[in-house]
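Milestone 3.1: sequence recovery, worked example.
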């Protein structure tokens, strides 16, 4: 499967604007919640840039509500914010990175550096699940993650998705 079909240049951000807290600062659950809201808001901006989002604010609410059901932060520095929602006109992928990493409560306690968002209309279950199953093992591959983190521009990220996902 070629994920590049759903990942557009405007939905890639090489460096999140959200910065991690100062290392001396105590990381409370409220601080993690605010960081998560800021990161998810940036992911929603990327989805919105594709023109495939009906209501940006409602999409953010849907993503945050989905996160309350089960954390989307995984071990290995990966977060996959995903939701099926009426706010999506079609299936879209967004990808962002954070060089310093953002602590979002991953099971291993590590900061997250790679954020891959997925949104789809609620009726698009098959495609949504097929892409999620394709992405999950890919995002656990340390070599691919290192290449992704080392990519110098958006087009290099897109080429990496084409090559790996064929």
């Amino acid at each position: 499967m070629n994920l590049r079909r759903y990942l557009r240049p405007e939905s890639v951000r090489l460096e999140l604007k959200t910065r991690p807290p100062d290392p001396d600062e105590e990381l409370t659950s409220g601080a993690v919640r605010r960081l998560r809201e800021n990161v998810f808001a940036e992911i929603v901006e990327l989805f919105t840039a594709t023109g495939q989002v009906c209501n940006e604010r409602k999409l953010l609410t849907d993503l945050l509500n989905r996160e309350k059901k089960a954390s989307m932060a995984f071990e290995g520095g990966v977060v996959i914010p995903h939701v099926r929602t009426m706010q999506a006109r079609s299936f879209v992928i967004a990808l962002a990175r954070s060089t310093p990493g953002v602590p979002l409560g991953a099971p291993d306690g590590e900061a997250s550096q790679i954020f891959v968002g997925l949104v789809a209309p609620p009726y698009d279950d098959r495609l949504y699940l097929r892409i999620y199953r394709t992405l999950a093992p890919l995002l656990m591959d340390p070599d691919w993650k290192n290449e992704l983190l080392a990519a110098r521009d958006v087009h290099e990220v897109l080429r990496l998705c084409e090559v790996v996902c064929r």
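The first strand starts at residue 7 and ends at 13. The helical segments are 29-49, 56-69, 125-139, 142-150, 154-164.
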